[in-house]
Amino acid sequence: MTVQEGQPPHSPPSVPPPSDKPAQQPWRTEGIPSGPAAKRGSGWMRWALWPVGYLILFAMFTYQDRMSGPEAVSYTEFKSQVASKNVKEVFARGDTIQGALKKAAPLPDQQDRTYDKFTTERPTFATDDLLAELIGGEATVRAKPLVQERGVLTNLLFSIGPLLLLFGFYFWMFRRQQRAMGGGILGGRARKPVDPETVRVTFADVAGIDEVEAEINEVVDFLRQPEKYRRLGARAPKGVLLTGAPGTGKTLLARATAGEADVPFFSASASEFIEMIVGVGASRVRELFAEARKVAPAIIFIDEIDTIGRTRGANAFGGHDEREQTLNQILTEMDGFSGTEGVIVLAATNRPDVLDPALLRPGRFDRTIVVHPPDRKGRADILAVHTRKVPLAKDVSLDELAASTPGTTGADLANLVNEAALLAARRGETEVFQHDLMDALEKVQLGTARNVVIPENERRRTAYHEAGHALLGMLLPGADPVRKVSIIPRGRTLGVTLSTPEADRYGYDANYLRGRIIGALGGMAAEHEVFAVVTTGSESDLEVVSRIARSMVGRWGMSERVGRLSVLPADGDPRMAGVSDSMLSTVDEEVRRITDECFAEARRLLKDNRDKLDAIVAELMIHETLDEAEVYAAAGFSRPVVGGNVKASAAARGTGSL
Q1: How far apart are CA 473 and CA 281, in angstroms?
Q2: Reduced to 3 states, what is the DSSP secondary structure of residue 389?
Q3: Quick check: pTM over 0.70?
Q4: Domain 376-446, CATH number (from 1.10.8.60, 3.40.50.620, 3.40.50.2300, 3.40.50.720)
Q5: Of the candidates 324, 316, 235, which has an alpha carbon nearest to the alpha carbon of residue 279?
Q6: What is the bridge-based pairing of β-strands 298-303 and 265-269?
Q7: N or C: which end of the chain has fewer CB within 10 A?
Q8: Per residue in 562-574, pLDDT tens?
Q9: Is 466 among the catalytic positions?
């Protein structure tokens, strides 16, 4: 498997396609728990009081009924009342007897208390003629159980209590779901804007994208000093759209704006406007903009705006759904601004290609700012920001680390620094050393090493596979230098070869791309040359080869048969773009031709340099991992120089055309 850093995968240099707290309204304060997030504990306590209160009421009414119910007396006391002919009526169920007296009688053991209703148990061994005695005393005898009468409140509680509990439970679940989905139609007024004192991010925390920071700062400065611009006839842009790959710092810029601006700042996620109930999203948009106008000048930030800003009419089932209504309301609100309202909308997205054209026209989002991954200097600045609170050893060179991470974003670098700190802590170190950072980079780029016992023949085959990649990387003119080769299993692979460019690349010519294909086929070519049979280890290599070759033919006009045409869209079915079946067949034939030519060239180079291939394999079988200096030394080459390749003779490189 080969790992290339900072190289073209699917497309030419462009923005690649993808990748709460509101209780009542989606806009909220950054960094401060609010709404249900702040009241979650009290919400649980409030709902926990429902069953507790129900149990208390049940116990109270039950105790009241028992206090006014029949008195439990002994069978002897009962017989005494029967003998006195003081029993008015009895209700019998088995051996249980309940009844009433003609007049109240004192309790035998509590003479200060009397009773007129009683209950008792007739012993099973009793042989007296109780029925005759009761009839003789003119008592009414019934042979059906006495149903204890409950009070009115108790009966009412037993009747509607379960329904109330069930209703309360469903209402609680409904409100909980509404909070999870960004509030509900039961929501109240909008919240206050972000408090700048609580936002711990400023422009000092933003690095590597100075030109973008300057444009955002200009917008903030306009709101701070509007007269400075108005006297020259300038007006503030109504909207600023931040686009770029994930992790480049779009949301971080918005948070820094909230921390720096001296004007109210409202923050919302586009997905929080959408609700199952039609019309709720539009209502939330109206209220958000109304609140911003009240405190103008102000800034509204909408993150991931492609959630609601997609091109209208793209619904497969037709109709006018909630998302489109919400988008229409945003368009109306932005169009309704006057030149002096002083409300600016910031929005961020990874997918500017799917946004509705009406959203991007001047007068709505007047300014589109593309946030690119940082260059080498920008990466060094970002690393300096992320290592401010990390104790670094004296041997740490952030510039060297920045040179080893082309194509990475700010989020990638932040993760790299964190991994290095974790690794240093695991090793018991008091500082983060350069080797910690490089080991963390290796872990991020290549994956975590697996402790797997590999049979010797498999290790040898893997060594030839990786040596094939590495040797072609050294032989091909203009190829990226080989940084590391390893046959230690990592992630899903049994071995890796890492190549990174000396400097950032922003464009790629046909020769370089063909060299990428030849290098990716080096593992399969080495297996074919040495073992005369290939394995499944080339799966990921073939994916890279197919992707580059198809883009060369169908998107970048690098095939004479297809011509200077773009017939393979970056997304979607090419047939939907009007491409004929015959053209697609031609594309397939050209892709096959390019890959076959590159595979033949890879086999030829490895065959001509078999001694160097075997030398690299021998070192890999001993050391398992070779760094840049070791792998070049094993092949008998000098290390590459900036802007060139290895100092090898033309005969050693081979004379094949790329």
Answers
A1: 55
A2: coil
A3: no
A4: 1.10.8.60
A5: 324
A6: parallel
A7: C
A8: 999 888 877 656 6
A9: yes
